[in-house]
Protein: Recombinase family protein
Organism: Streptomyces chengmaiensis
Amino acid sequence: MLIGYARVSTADQNPDHQIDALLRAGVTRDHVHVDTASGAKASRPKLDLVMQLLREGDTLKVTRLDRLSRSVLHLVTLGRRTARARDRAGRHPLHGVRQDRACQRLLGAR
């Protein structure tokens, strides 16, 4: 299953461009989860839900890594948590909509 995650920092910001990109990447509307929270804010209920929903074979799509993570350390921590959900082919479940090789190496993608 494809699961999408988007985040905006304030209620004044509009997540529509992130949602549109996730939909174009194949995520269905009912599997797109959006938080309105500062990146520094520890509590992000939709991200917590997404992390609980991920199962072996699932793929988490984000538009940019800064929408997912507060820092490089937080990104590595999330990468380790999601690594448990690798599918049988060894694919990492976390994918940026536009993911480059540096991000793939950081997340341990094969």
Notes: The mean pLDDT is 78.
